[in-house]
Amino acid sequence: MKPVRSKDKELMIKIRSYIDEYALENLGRSPSTREIGEEFNMSNVTAFRYLKAMSEQGILKYEDGEIHTELIDKFNTDMNVVGALSASVPAGSPDMVDDVLVDEYFPLPSALLHGLSGKFYMMPVCGESMVDAGIDDGDHVIFQEDNATREGDIVVAYIEGEGNTLKRYCKDEKGPFLWAENESWTNERRMFGRHFEVRGIAVKVMKDL
């Protein structure tokens, strides 16, 4: 096998990132050499050569025609893979979140997420607007990336010009609106507007003892 030059290490890292992104979008399935070749404008043979070289260098495992990374292997157990985000979601006034990055991925048993499937993310909560829903400042909320919202769901919503916020999704004769679950607040303060985009639906709250 023709050796891969050291300057190709950057391309190997890009291929590894593509493989994990592909797995996230395809519920743990890894791309074929053909798909890798199409993504990076190379032949199937060249893609195969890179995978073998990446395996030899410990960037991933490639054996018997199967790609293994930590993320792919987590998907292929009875687990959901959750992405931990670097920014917090305000349970108070909305806050600007420009570039929310995934710090790490970790597995949770499917039973903890009610057997749901899809993309899940976890963000720390700041603020006290959802205390009467059992969500306190410092908790971590796991939400499913979904906008098929039902009335009564607790959602992560984006308000144009203000940012992301965690609130109850409600409806009245005028349409949907966001509502804070803090009975010590006035109704005017609890109402968080009607112009927003749902980013995800909260499915689990995690607390420290």
Radius of gyration, in angstroms, nearest whole number: 21 Å
Mean pLDDT over all positions: 84
| CATH architecture call of the largest domain | Ribbon
SSE order, one letter for each helix or strand: HHHEEHEEEEEEEEHE
Task: Say what the CATH topology of the largest domain is.
Answer: Umud Fragment, subunit A
CATH evolutionary superfamily of the largest domain: Umud Fragment, subunit A
Instruction: Tell me how many strands there are.
Output: 11
Helix content: 10-25%
Identify the overall geometry: elongated
- Low-pLDDT stretches: 94-99
Task: Kindly report the oligomeric state of this protein.
Answer: single chain
The CATH class designation of the largest domain is: Mainly Beta
Counting helices, strands and paired strands, the structural category is alpha+beta
The major beta sheet can be summarized as:
9 strands, mixed
Distance between the termini: 55 Å
Strand content: 25-35%
Per-chain topology:
Layout: H1 9-25, H2 33-39, H3 44-56, E1 61-63, E2 66-68, H4 70-75, E3 79-85, E4 89-90, E5 102-109, E6 120-126, E7 140-144, E8 154-159, E9 163-172, E10 175-179, H5 187-190, E11 197-206
Parallel strand pairs: 3-6, 4-6
Antiparallel strand pairs: 1-2, 3-5, 6-7, 7-11, 8-9, 8-11, 9-10
Tell me what the structure shows.
With 209 residues, the chain is an alpha+beta fold. It has two domains: 6-75, Arc Repressor Mutant, subunit A; 79-206, Umud Fragment, subunit A (Ribbon), CATH 2.10.109. Strand 1 and strand 2 (66-68) form a beta hairpin. The protein is elongated and about 65 Å long. The longest helix is centred in the N-terminal third of the chain and has 17 residues, at 9-25. It has helices spanning 9-25, 33-39, 44-56, 70-75, 187-190; strands spanning 61-63, 66-68, 79-85, 89-90, 102-109, 120-126, 140-144, 154-159, 163-172, 175-179, 197-206.
